[in-house]
Amino acid sequence: MDSTILRYVLVSVIAYFLGNFATSYIVSMRSAHIDIRKHGSGNAGATNVLRVLGAKAAAATFIGDALKGVAAVLIGRYIAGSNGAILAGLFVVVGHNWPVVLGFRGGKGVATTIGSLLAINPLLVSIVFAMAVIVLITTKYVSLASITGMVIFPIAMIAFKQSKEYIAFSVIIAILAIFKHRTNIIRLINGTESKLGKKAKAE
Length: 203
Prior knowledge:
By secondary structure, the chain is mainly α. It has one domain (about 5-190). Helix content is about 75%, strand content about 0%. The chain contains 9 helices and no strands. Helix 2 runs antiparallel to helix 4 (about 55-95).
């Protein structure tokens, strides 16, 4: 097998299992001896941790999830260059969303995606993050802010004339994020989605 392909496979496997590091699960077990997936909305992410365990635990979860995105991309770039960084950014999110160690019940990948993008293109992630924050402040819907950011991401990639590989990466990441937020989208349409600061409904 070609050595380049072997490096790509290695990067993908490393990134996937790095994504399996379930920060929300670890934080919830250590701080409150609970499985966060059995409380609140049932999502293994920072927003649910915020609602169930508070800001300190949520911050630890967000930072941990983002850092594994950064680490995966840096490792991928070191092993296999820019294409390795792209593969790592994709597979660390897949590993976070569908972790084999937790029966494929993970989070929605927002913080991990932010970390990956930060390592790939800090300027673009700053723009996307700023737009998402504006939506969050305006509407108080975390899910809507996350979806908005993911939709803007590929648009920003195209606007800033990034390579076709990075554009393809951004489109796939956006599709994954929208898929993971599909129940939130239905609740947003029905007007039943929980706003920031309110108790979330189980998914």
